[in-house]
Amino acid sequence: MVKKETVPKVTFADVWLSHTEKKWEKHWLKKVHDKVNWNKFRYRFEKLYSEGNGRPAWDPIVLFKCLLLAQWWGLSDRQLEEAVGDRFSFRKFLDLRWEEEAPDATTFCVFRERITEIMDKLLRIMEEQLKEVGFEIQKAVAVDATLIEAHSIPRGEEKGDGEATYRGFTEKLIVNDRMELTIARRPPLFGYKANVRVSVAQGFVGAVSVCAASEHDARHMEELLSEKTKKVYADKGYVGCKGLLRARGIADYIQDKGVSRHPLTAAQISRNKRISRVRYIVEGIFGSWKQWYGWRKTKYMGLVRNTLAVILTALSWNMKKWAQLSSSA
User: Fold this and answer.
1) 232: part of which helix (H) or strand (E)?
2) Which residues sit opposite 182 in a β-bridge?
3) According to the CATH classification, is domain 135-149+193-328 in 3.30.420?
4) How far apart are CA 172 and CA 186, in angstroms?
5) Global confidence as pTM
6) CATH 3.30.420 intervals, the chain
7) How far is CA 75 from its chain centroid?
């Protein structure tokens, strides 16, 4: 007997997949997935592996994307492993099929250690891609630094994070609630300092330097500049870098600082306000990093690991901003 044709039934899985595919098409992660040239990163990562030696490794781009997802969602390695295992948008971003296993937390740790030797090249790769699509992120920049508390601080005889240091705060005269003149002191912070260079046009992070908290901001100005930098906006903490900018032919938009018996003139005060309206963009980035990217405290022990973590945050920031700017265009 000939089998009768049957009308295929629509299952819950079919409806769910159709719905999630539609949501994925509008997701900002898909824009990042499509816009970034991942092969530029792949070229660098593959040089870190020895061909024909050991077991087959995970695709480095999958692992790299996983580290970016951890930045965007503030996930630990264990949480990232669980999320990649069952979250639809994560697997689409990683190009993982449902039947494929997800990397585990240990794999993320090993990969993070592996790429520390090329971490200084990752931001340059991203910078080149942004320049190719027409963003100018080197000529007019704002430079600033923010303090980040160490993951582990000294208590008693314990040393805490051995590469972090204290940053002291000077006394400041203020008027309290009872209209009395008093001295305000902020407690010293034990940790690190993240120095960044940001384009004033769109807010892309172009360079990063991480140091001990006790180091002065101005010491890291030179390493944040590029050969194409034409204007630098900065607060009065960088006033000692004015000579460096003049020597390199860079327009000086560093705020003026008053000293004893030589207060700022009305013209200098007005100039400082104009500079503040431009350089505020870097303050917004620091605020977002601390609120949404978990940078109220460092994420690891040691300077190298925290430098890589800040670079990964800068990369994820640039990629998401690129996606958002393309959506509003």
Assistant:
1) strand 231-234
2) 174
3) yes
4) 9
5) 0.88
6) 135-149+193-328
7) 15
